[in-house]
Amino acid sequence: GMENLVACPYKQPNALCRLICFPWAGGGTSTLAQWGRLFSSSIEVYSVRFPGRESRLKEPFAKDMASLVTEITTALLQELQEKPFAFFGHSFGSYISFAVALQLKEKYGLEPFHLFVSGAHAPNSEALLPIKSIPIHDTADEDILKYIAILGGTPSELLQSEDMKKHLIQTFREDLRVLQTFSFEKAERKTPLSCDITCFNGSEDKPYDLTAWPELTSGDTSCYKLPGGHFYLLEPSNEIFLIKHITRCIENAGL
């Protein structure tokens, strides 16, 4: 059910809208769920919990993008019909947020009024192709750990415990496998979304191909670079910028 799928430690029953957050590969709900205390009471923050972690530790990991997206849309459907909602996704979470938005639109005629994506390529970009060819099963644990360390964003104490380290590597591997099953072909002459899209990135992160985003919506698209690497959003000053910017976009949507 919904309680299992979503962390919402700061409930705002009278909120005008909800911000649904989708975490990164290997990540849990805690960081983005804490955003709930930074927004005003007019915005309620949900952080989506993927299977295989936290309170869903005993559940099998998602087997592919399609089943993960269907699980999320089904569990959230009732909530999303109640009041307007926006999505925020970082890295792996950006692709999931887009795929969920797409399914909601195609299947239920529902759409986020704003899609905030961070640290990711446009889903219709060829830059995604190399990710699909990473041989996940043949990649050594050490190499995955190195990659996680380069990205940053993982508390060092998690990497001290062997069990935690093992679980993190497995979770990251499984999330990457899900991402490899994601395919999106833009249909000719059909613009899938109509919401505004904002892309955020770290200035020191590798460059992302964002040029194809405008093809995916009839709304406006804009991009912002913030100081830092892949996990620029964990810096308090950037977090403040994101909260203020997202709030302003929501206020301007005139809900």
From TrEMBL:
InterPro entries registered for this protein in UniProt: AB_hydrolase_fold, TEII, Thioesterase
Protein name: S-acyl fatty acid synthase thioesterase, medium chain
GO BP terms: medium-chain fatty acid biosynthetic process
Annotated catalysed reactions: (9Z)-octadecenoyl-[ACP] + H2O = (9Z)-octadecenoate + holo-[ACP] + H(+)
Stretches assigned to coiled coil: none
Keyword Zinc: no
Entry keywords, A to Z: Fatty acid biosynthesis, Fatty acid metabolism, Hydrolase, Lipid biosynthesis, Lipid metabolism
Similarity comment text for this entry: Belongs to the thioesterase family.
PANTHER family for this protein: S-ACYL FATTY ACID SYNTHASE THIOESTERASE, MEDIUM CHAIN, THIOESTERASE
Domain Thioesterase: residue ranges: 18-246
Pfam families, alphabetized: Thioesterase (PF00975)
UniProt cross-references to Gene3D superfamilies, sorted A to Z: alpha/beta hydrolase
Highest taxon above the source species: Eukaryota
This enzyme's EC code(s): 3.1.2.14
Molecular-function GO terms, alphabetical: fatty acyl-[ACP] hydrolase activity
